[in-house]
Every structure is written in structure tokens, then in C-alpha cells.
Design goal:
Number of helices: 18
Helix content: 55-70%
Distance between the termini: 36 Å
Number of strands: 2
Largest sheet: 2 strands, antiparallel
Shape: globular
Strand order of the largest sheet: 1-2
Strand content: under 5%
Length: 436
């Protein structure tokens, strides 16, 4: 392969990665899923069916998850079954594409630049949505989020990465402090104006894991986190109920009320149900599961199963009593695939863990950066399974799924031999050793 062909291929793969990260956040989910399926098909054609075995090992627990869910699916409506296959299938394709693209990029410096580019682009979209109608900022938190959405998690991820990037020697920012301030400023502005608790948690987690839990580097973020939790608990009784939920809710009020919101209980009053919707939904899902047979305890009630909410609620703009999808990804797995499916879902997370020194005998700064951030994103995906569906999220968390596939592909790849080709050499000029 000559230099021009290698450059074209690298440019094409880089463009695809940026498309996946930005498109997964802003494109209609069904159209984006169709585009992923098309990319995989063309990839198979282009490589003549040579799909790395590692990508199949990465996704096969979730493929088994679909097989288990299909055992009882025949009793459910075909459309609902198809919808569940789509929810799981799109994330399987996303993590697989992330893996495949990273195996071609093979360069953490270039990869970080692409992630930051995607983060800046998506942040500019968020800021444009806000400032194209600046009057919206005078409205309540609920009205702002109804008008502009809940923001994009890639903004918080970009802010966290660029904030800690100077600790790592494998990459430098052209333009120095000016470039750093521009990237951080755009991303942190979009994060702040999203009024999203999840984005602030993401930002804090990224900063924490990139600092590394060694020596004194973790002391300040741990102390800040501890003080923040203490402050939230202390304000629980001080903030009016009207600011915790409902149309007059504030970001601080919603943050203080976060734990109460997911407490599982059979709420009887309608206003309690609205305030604690995730907890109530989880309770109804648990009831659906426990009302099944012993066989359904093991393999679930099948893909396409809907949870009876006991009342009509507006879901996706339409009032309905039966919820086909849940906020709690663990309960989603339990209801539809039983104990076996839930075990497969948890096992998939354990398979993503990459021990130190798995492949690389030289623990270099780019490898440490990748492993730390990969671990943080896997943990974030696991935690958000309680509130956003995690791996089963419609599109909000899909950029994280893509990135998990990328990092896994990078960390488990055998070092490329130096053949003189551009593709086998890192763009980083130096590879610095760094402690884990």
C-alpha cells in the first residue's frame, strides 16, 4: 500500500469515527442505525469478510443475550420484538464499529484529536440550539430542556479530557494555551448550559480517572466530591419541594433529589409517581418479572414484553399504559431475558476490563491514558444502566458505547510491527513510560 492510499484510508476511517460520535447524538436513531448497518456491510465487502476475531469476542455475550430473549418472544407482538432487537442490535453495531475503526487508526494521539473535534462540534450544536432563541434561558428548567433537549454527553467528556490532557506526554496541543482554552471553553459552556446532572457526573468522573488513583493526584477531586455529597445531603431539608421536581425544578434541587427519584416503591399518589417515576417504573417491572413462571424467571418473558404501568402516562409524546422500554437497563434485561440475560449483561461488563500489561510490555503514557479512560467509561455505562438504560440507551449514551469499543480495540491490539508504513507508526513523536 503506497503513502497516498494509506493517507486516504486513514482520513476515511477518521471521518467515519467523527461521524459515529456526532451522528449517534444528533441523528434520528433509526436512520443512524441504518447507516451503521450499511457501514458494517461495506466494511465486510471492502475487507472481503476479514473481520477481526476480537470484535466478535467483544459482542458475542450480547448476541447470546438476544438469543435468550428470543426464546419466549413468539408470544409477544412482532413490532415490539423487532423494537427490542433494534435497541440491543444498534449498540452491538456501535461497539463493534468502534473496535474496527480503532484497529485501523492505531494511534492514540490522532484518536484523542478526533474525539475532541467531535466534542467541540456537538458542543457548538448545543450552544447554537440555546442561543438561537436566547429568550428560552428565562424560562423554567423543564421548559429549557423541552426546547433544547438534555444536551450531549460528549461535551462533558471533551471538557474532562482536555482538562487533564496536559498530564500526558504522548500528545501536545498546537497553539498551546489558546487551543486548550478554546476547546475547554466550548465544551464546558455546553455542559453547564445543558443543566444535566449526568453531564456533571461524567465530567467529574473523567477528571478523576485521568488523574489516576495514585499518590496525591486523587486527593483534590476526592475531597471535592466528598464535600459536594455532604453539601447535597445537607441541603436536602433546606430546598423547597417545588424546586426538586416539577415545572419549577432547579438543577440544584434535582441533584439533591436524585437518590429519592430512583427509590423502588409502589407509589399510590399520582404526584408521587411523577416525582419518583424511575423508582415506580422499576417497581412495576419487578412485579412483571415476579408474576412469571419458573421458566420465565430463568430466560425472561421474551423480547417484546411490555411492563404494565398501572396507569396511563405520556411516554414519547403518546399516552400509554404499557412501557416497552425501561430507564433501568438491569430491569430491562431481567424482564425480557431473565436471570440468564442479566448475567450475560453483567458478564459483558466484566469482559471489558483490561488488566495492566495485558498486551503492552511497555506501560507508556498513551496506553495508560487509554486504559484509565476506558475503565471510567465502562464504569459510567454500568452506573447509567440504573437511570438511562446503559447499553440499551436509545441514543444519549451511544457515543460512550462507540468509545468503549474503540478503547477496547486499542488496549487489546498486538503492537504493530514497524514495517515503515505510516499505518504501523504512531503520530506521537515519543512514547513515555508512565506508572498506572
Amino acid at each position: 500500500m503506497n503513502l497516498l492510499q494509506q493517507t486516504r484510508e486513514r482520513f476515511g476511517v477518521s471521518a467515519l469515527l467523527v461521524y459515529l460520535l456526532v451522528g449517534s447524538a444528533i441523528m434520528p436513531a433509526d436512520i443512524f442505525t441504518a447507516s451503521m448497518a450499511t457501514i458494517i456491510f461495506l466494511w465486510i465487502v471492502y475487507t472481503r469478510g476479514k473481520i477481526p476475531a476480537g470484535s466478535l469476542k467483544l459482542v458475542w455475550p450480547m448476541v447470546l443475550f438476544l438469543i435468550v430473549g428470543s426464546l419466549n418472544a413468539f408470544v409477544n407482538p412482532a413490532y415490539d420484538v423487532f423494537k427490542d432487537v433494534w435497541y440491543v442490535g444498534k449498540s452491538i453495531m456501535a461497539v463493534m464499529l468502534g473496535y474496527l475503526l480503532m484497529r485501523r487508526i492505531r494511534d492514540m494521539a490522532l484518536f484523542v484529536w478526533l474525539v475532541l473535534l467531535a466534542a467541540v462540534l456537538i458542543s457548538l450544536v448545543q450552544l447554537y440550539e440555546l442561543f438561537s432563541e436566547p429568550a428560552v434561558l428565562d424560562r423554567s428548567l423543564r421548559e429549557i430542556r423541552q426546547e433544547t433537549g438534555i444536551g450531549y454527553i460528549l461535551s462533558a467528556l471533551g471538557a474532562g479530557i482536555v482538562f487533564e490532557l496536559r498530564r500526558y506526554k504522548f500528545i501536545s496541543l498546537p497553539g498551546g494555551l489558546v487551543t486548550w482554552m478554546l476547546i475547554f471553553g466550548v465544551c464546558i459552556a455546553a455542559t453547564a448550559l445543558s443543566f444535566s446532572r449526568t453531564q456533571w457526573v461524567t465530567l467529574f468522573l473523567v477528571v478523576l480517572v485521568l488523574r489516576g488513583l495514585r499518590g496525591r493526584s486523587w486527593f483534590i477531586p476526592i475531597m471535592v466530591g466528598t464535600l459536594a455529597i455532604a453539601l447535597v445531603l445537607g441541603l436536602e431539608s433546606e430546598i423547597p419541594e417545588s424546586e426538586k421536581t416539577g415545572i419549577n425544578a432547579t438543577l440544584l434541587g434535582k441533584t439533591v433529589y436524585s437518590i429519592n427519584e430512583i427509590v423502588v416503591s409502589d407509589y399510590s399518589r399520582e404526584d408521587d409517581i411523577h416525582k419518583n417515576w424511575r423508582g415506580y417504573e422499576t417497581y412495576r417491572a419487578l412485579q412483571t418479572y415476579t408474576n412469571g413462571s419458573y421458566w420465565e424467571y430463568v430466560v425472561g418473558r421474551g423480547l417484546g414484553t411490555s411492563v404494565d404501568l398501572g396507569l396511563y402516562m405520556k411516554l414519547g409524546g403518546v399516552k400509554q399504559r404499557y412501557a416497552p422500554v425501561l430507564h433501568n437497563g438491569f430491569m430491562y434485561a431481567l424482564v425480557k431475558t431473565g436471570i440468564v440475560g442479566l448475567a450475560l449483561y453483567l458478564w459483558w461488563f466484566t469482559r471489558l476490563y483490561v488488566p495492566a500489561g495485558t498486551i503492552s510490555p511497555q506501560i507508556t503514557s498513551d496506553w495508560v491514558f487509554a486504559r484509565r479512560l476506558h475503565t471510567g467509561l465502562v464504569f459510567l455505562l454500568l452506573v447509567t444502566s440504573f437511570v438511562f438504560g446503559g447499553f440499551f440507551s436509545k441514543n444519549y449514551l451511544l457515543p460512550l458505547v462507540v468509545l468503549v469499543g474503540c478503547f477496547y480495540g486499542y488496549l487489546t491490539a498486538e503492537p504493530a510491527p514497524d514495517t515503515g508504513d505510516v499505518a504501523s507508526r504512531s503520530l506521537s513523536t515519543k512514547r513515555h513510560r508512565m506508572p498506572l
